[in-house]
Each structure stands twice: as C-alpha cells, then as structure tokens.
Design brief:
The protein has about 450 residues and is α/β, with parallel strands linked by helices. It folds into two domains: about 5-220, Spore Coat Polysaccharide Biosynthesis Protein SpsA, Chain A (Alpha-Beta Complex), CATH 3.90.550.10; about 240-435, 3 Solenoid (UDP N-Acetylglucosamine Acyltransferase, domain 1). The protein has seven helices and 41 strands. The chain has a seven-stranded mixed beta sheet with strand order 5-4-1-6-10-7-11, with helices on both faces. Strands 12-15-18-21-24-27-30 form a seven-stranded parallel beta sheet, covered by helices on one side. The mean pLDDT is about 95.
Length: about 450
C-alpha cells in the first residue's frame, strides 16, 4: 500500500479573529491547508485524507480535488480528529503520516524524511521535533535516561521543570498504521483540557514495546499559523524561500524583500524584478524582461524583452518587445502583440492591440480589435457601453486616431484611416479615409474684450 496521510484541518482558529476558517487564510495567494496538501503529494503521499470541522463547507472545495474528506463533528482534541479519519483508511498498513493543516511552511523533503525514518527504524512512531528559544504553547518532548522519546507533555500539563524544555512537538508524526488505530481506543481525557490528545499515543506505543523516534527539523518549517502575526511571519519566510529559488535560477532582484511572488509563478533566466512588484497566480515572465517598479501581475503571461513599469495586469497576454506603463491597467482578455505599447494612464479591457500598435497615454480601449501599426492619440476612448450592452470596435492596420477622439461602438475603422483630433466617430470609416466628427469652430472677435465702466 502506498504512503498515506491524515491532515488535521478541523479547528476554528479563534485567535485569527476571523469569520473565515483559519486554514483558508492565504500565504502568497494560496490557502494554508493547500500548502500542506501539496507538500504531502510532492513527498510521495498517494492518499490524503483531510479532517475538516469548522467551516467545512468552505474548506472542502479547496482540498476535495486531490484529497478525501473526513469530518470531525465536534472538536474534542487531536486524537479524536485522527479517529474521524480511521473509517476512510480501513485496512491501512505501514507508514501513516499525521500532518498539521495550519503549518504552510512544511517541505516535501521533511515529510518524506519523516516517513523514511519510521521505515528504517520500524518504529511505532516518529515524532517531528523542533528546538525553539521560546517554547510557550508547544508540547514538550520528554526523553528518558537513554535519550529516547518517553512522552510529550502539553503546555497546560507541564511541571515547572518540563516547562523549561526547549525541544518541542511540531504536530507532525509518522505512525505504524495498525499501532495507531489500536492506540486510539486507549486514549482518554485525563488532562488539563479534557481532550483526547494524540500525543498520548507515544506512551501507549512505548508500553507496547515499540520504538518512538524523534526526527528534528528546522523550527521555521513547523511554524503554525494561529494569529495574524504568525500569518505574516509565515508569509515572509515563504517569500524569501521563493525569491531565493528564483534568484538562484538566474533572476535578478534589486531588493528581494519588496518582491512578492506566488508559488505557481514561473520566471525565465535573465529577468529583472524591481522593487514593489507582486506576481500572482499562473503568471509567467520571459527572458530579458524588466518588471517594475510598483507592478502587480496576476495570471498574466509576459514574453521576452518587455518593459513592465508600474502596471497592473490581470489575465493578460503580453507578447515580446512590449512596453507597458507607467500606470497602465490591463484588464482580463487583453492581448498586447509583439512590439506594441500601452502607455501612461492607459486602461485596456478585452482587447487586442496589434503588432507595433501604440496606445501611448491617457486612453481607454475596451472590446476592441486593433490591427498592426495603429497609433491612438492621447485622451482617446472607445465608448463600448451604451448603458445596457457592451459593443465592439475594430481599427484596421496603420490607422492614426487623433487625440481626444471618441469611437462610439459598434463602429469599424478601416485600414490606413486618419481620424482628426477631437472627433466623435459614430459611423464606419472605409480604408484610406479621413474622418472628422467635430463641431465647426466659431470665432467672435472682441467678444472677450473688457467693458469700461
């Protein structure tokens, strides 16, 4: 039977002070519990069972795609949570991991090492431990005279001497499945919190003559998120991990502490990321591109040798040699073709800007198909909404639209069209035509001359 895991994600997380379940709070755009599920799968776990409780309706869609769900109806402790998953794992043998769903920094390498340590020692339990300067709130690892793990004592049950121990329980374990299932029936609530502690299985295993082994990990991996302060700390650690990985792969960052990159972002070598940049979702950045400063790209593909300056882009495709910004806003279904430009204070929505075409400044282009070599003058807009429905605009190759032009959709401008500045275009314009749509200028001499008293 392949490696299996139980992820405990049923807690309410009252210290988060949030209506949202704790495990749905995000680290770099990804829910906490998803970090743990993904790490388990990357470690080689074939079967994941998530134990849910508080906020189950919201959490289940986040994990159900590649994990089974068990329900802890009433939160009565960690052993009770594990017991809720037992029916889903009937017949399991060998190594069974129990992971904390509120620890997003755990790595696949540590999870795999935990399982390997149990297999090699044929242990009843392997406990993932950590050493911390301030152990407050954690269960303490109590060892016997031979240095073996004897038991885990929760904070509220510690003697003054045990409270000084700095080796702590991380909340991650690898059990012999059959031992665990048998031991769960022997756990009681004889403790300060009146709960069923999973840590009691340690003593039960020792009494059964099974080895209990400790595997120590970096404390940062085991950081649980119980407050917004801890959420920020975990996010900062993950930020540094991700940024370091990209820099080692050939990405330049002027100030990595001000760059925030999501886990699913891909970046080619020789990209430069300037300060105050956020890259999220499935964003991809091609070689030779400079991003920033002050840009935010979400689910956006950027080609090679682009300059993305102070730009917000969402679900946008940017081809090669494109200039964006500063202060450009690219909304979903925008496509900037090779060599095009979306300039200062330009907003583009659901539009294709053709090869070499330019929307340099102070313009709005919506629901538009633009050919190649087009120039849009400053302050021009496509009037795509009539108050009820959105309408399209097309602009042919090599057309020039003068400044402060309104193109009232639906409207088609042909190729090689010239539109005079300040025009309101309400009718189609054929190829090679000059279009003017503005009131005749009237000059009244002396009408502004001061009148003597």
């Amino acid at each position: 039977m392949g490696l299996q895991a139980i992820i405990l994600a049923a807690g309410e997380g009252t210290r988060m002070k949030s209506a949202k379940p704790k495990v749905l709070h995000e680290v770099l755009g990804k829910p906490i519990v998803r970090w743990v599920v993904d790490a388990a799968h990357e470690a080689g776990v074939e079967d994941v069972v998530c134990v849910l409780g508080h906020g189950r309706e919201a959490v289940e869609p986040i994990v159900a795609g590649d994990a089974r769900v068990a329900v802890q109806v009433e939160q009565r402790g960690t052993a009770d949570a594990v017991a809720a998953a037992v029916p889903a794992l009937a017949g399991a043998t060998g190594s069974l991991l129990v992971l904390s769903g509120d620890c997003p920094l755990i790595t696949p390498q540590t999870i795999a090492a935990l399982a390997q340590a149990r297999d090699e020692a044929d242990a009843g339990v392997v406990v993932l431990t950590m050493k911390v300067d301030d152990p407050t709130g954690y269960g303490r690892i109590v060892r016997d005279a031979q240095g073996q793990v004897e038991r885990i004592v929760e904070q509220k049950d510690c003697t003054p001497e045990q409270a000084q121990i700095c080796e702590c329980n991380s909340g991650f374990y690898c059990f012999d499945a059959e031992l665990l299932f048998d031991a769960l029936g022997k756990v009681d609530t004889n403790n300060a919190q009146g709960e069923f502690y999973l840590t009691d299985v340690i003593e039960i295993a020792r009494k059964a003559g099974r080895a209990v082994v400790a595997y120590t990990a970096d404390a940062a991996e085991c950081l649980g998120v119980n407050t917004r302060v801890q959420l920020a700390a975990a996010t900062k650690i993950m930020q540094r991990r991700i940024n370091e990985r990209h820099m080692l792969a050939g990405v330049t960052m002027l100030d990595p502490d001000t760059v925030w990159i999501g886990p699913d972002v891909t970046i080619d070598p020789d990209v430069e990321i300037l300060p105050q940049v956020m890259l999220a979702g499935k964003t991809h950045i091609g070689t030779g591109t400079v991003v920033g400063p002050c840009s935010r790209l979400t689910d956006t593909t950027v080609g090679r040798n682009c300059t993305i300056d102070e730009t917000v882009a969402i679900e946008t495709t940017i081809d090669n040699d494109v200039d964006c910004g500063p202060r450009a806003y690219l909304r979903p279904q925008t496509h900037l073709c090779d060599g095009s430009k979306a300039g200062t204070h330009v907003e583009i929505k659901k539009s294709t800007i053709g090869k070499g075409s330019k929307v340099p400044h102070l313009s709005y282009i919506g629901d538009t198909t633009m050919g190649s070599g087009v120039n849009i003058g400053a302050g021009s807009i496509t009037c795509n909404y009539d108050g009820v429905k959105k309408w399209p605009t097309t602009i042919g190759d090599d057309s020039f639209v003068g400044s402060d032009t309104m193109m009232v959709a639906p409207v088609n401008l042909g190729a090689h069209v010239l539109v005079g500045a300040g025009s309101v275009i309400t009718q189609d314009v054929p190829d090679y035509a000059l279009a003017l749509g503005r009131a005749r200028q009237v000059v009244k001499p002396d009408r502004n001359r001061p009148v003597d008293d």
